[in-house]
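Input record, target 12 of the design panel.
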């Protein structure tokens, strides 16, 4: 027998997929990057082809294969001299550039493959001269994939530091402030190594507000953070004494002036560097709102900059959904509540899950008993935490169904163990790798 909410569920998935389509990495590149007989155009920047002898491509992130393939299509194999595309394990199948070599590496915890690829990137950059053009295509996951640990920091030390920050619930701004100062490529240092070549960076933003110095840890952007900021972040999460000694030593030496800071605004090395944001969460949300309206819902877009502790953000969404059902405020049904961004989870348990599944589980508990409602939370990259699911879908009946199966939603929430809970219910949303990453999308429907 079909569930009473089956149409709502189908609509929620269709609305989410409209956002995915709008965030498609190849479409984003195509909209901002083009070639004529004489010029290459990136955003508002025009570059004469006669100024370059060689063109190289470096694509890094979960959408690297798809972005790299589109750049290759636009430029053509004849003009493209080569390059690298570094992506997460399992994501290479989304797109395969022919001229550019594809490498898969670890995310969110960096691995040896990413460290070796970073060395390959450094070798490529050292070959560039003033007659070369480097196209950099960055998408979510680039920071972890292009690990590039700066000596004496080892890969193991960087892995431990990253893991501690993630478990502490550090947001991307704090996380990247630390990673930039433990790397030889992040925080504008990739652009420094490429100098005097011309650099064009196409940025698919997975960061709230689309700051170019934070997307992918800003390898081609002037860095606004400092060694002192990195130390402050570790103190903020009470991690300074828990990170490896080499990490503390490097950061302290930086503060003492014994190590050079990352390149800052005004540095002449950025004269020939052009950073262009080609895709973002706000564009994806606009598409979900259009789809919701086509399906007969009143779209209510809360924000594309949602952040904070996942459970708390979920409770705010659930309370708005309850108000819609009970009073018709702030809008009368049928309503589609939409939001995007990137929340964080402070991991206290040893379960399996991700922030979107945790959002869905917290929402399920808060809307238990409500009729004719659905909530979906999913990552646009198709992977939520270290799982094969993009997120999950819940209704007002989810908690009752779970209890009939002997599942305690609160217990699973306390243990950060959302994945097995939704797996047992058949309510995981699995898209596979999508070839894009513009943070998360939340869809809540009141039919």
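The sequence produced for target 12 reads:
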């Amino acid at each position: 027998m079909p569930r009473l909410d089956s149409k709502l569920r189908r609509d929620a998935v269709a609305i989410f997929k409209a956002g995915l389509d709008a965030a498609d990495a190849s479409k984003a590149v195509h909209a901002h990057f083009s070639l004529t007989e004489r010029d290459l155009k990136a955003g508002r920047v025009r570059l004469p082809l006669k100024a370059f002898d060689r063109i190289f491509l470096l694509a890094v992130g979960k959408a690297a294969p798809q972005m790299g393939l589109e750049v290759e299509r636009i430029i053509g194999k004849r003009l493209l001299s080569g390059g690298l595309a570094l992506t997460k394990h399992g994501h290479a199948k989304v797109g395969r550039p022919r001229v550019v070599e594809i490498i898969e590496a670890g995310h969110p915890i960096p691995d040896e493959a990413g460290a070796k690829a970073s060395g390959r990137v450094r070798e490529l950059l050292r070959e560039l001269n003033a007659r070369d053009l480097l196209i950099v295509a960055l998408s979510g996951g680039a920071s972890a994939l292009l690990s590039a640990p700066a000596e004496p920091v080892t890969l193991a030390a960087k892995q431990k530091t990253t893991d501690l920050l993630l478990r502490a619930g550090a947001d991307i701004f704090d996380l990247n402030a630390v990673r930039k100062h433990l790397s030889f490529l992040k925080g504008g240092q990739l652009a420094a190594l490429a100098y005097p070549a011309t650099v064009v960076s196409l940025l698919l933003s997975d960061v709230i507000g689309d700051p170019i110095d934070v997307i992918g840890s800003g390898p081609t952007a002037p860095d606004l953070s400092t060694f002192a900021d990195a130390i402050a972040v570790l103190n903020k999460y009470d991690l300074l004494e828990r990170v490896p000694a080499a990490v503390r030593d490097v950061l302290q030496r930086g503060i003492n002036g014994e190590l050079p800071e990352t390149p800052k605004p005004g540095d002449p090395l950025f004269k020939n560097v052009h950073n262009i944001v080609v895709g973002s969460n706000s564009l994806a949300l606009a598409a979900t709102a259009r789809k919701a309206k086509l399906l007969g819902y009143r779209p209510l877009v809360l924000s594309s900059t949602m952040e904070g502790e996942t459970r708390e953000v979920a409770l705010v969404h659930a309370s708005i959904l309850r108000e819609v059902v009970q009073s018709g405020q702030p809008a009368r049904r049928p309503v589609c509540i939409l939001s995007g961004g990137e929340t964080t989870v402070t991991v206290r348990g040893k379960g399996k899950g991700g922030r979107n599944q945790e959002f869905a589980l917290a929402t399920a508990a808060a809307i238990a008993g409500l009729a004719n409602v659905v909530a979906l939370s999913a990552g646009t990259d198709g992977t939520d935490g270290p799982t094969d699911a993009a997120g999950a879908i819940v209704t007002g009946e989810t908690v009752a169904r779970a209890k009939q199966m002997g599942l305690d939603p609160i217990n699973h929430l306390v243990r950060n163990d959302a994945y097995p809970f939704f797996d047992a219910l058949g309510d995981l949303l699995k898209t596979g790798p999508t070839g894009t990453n513009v943070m998360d999308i939340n869809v809540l429907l009141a039919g």
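The longest helix spans residues 310-327.
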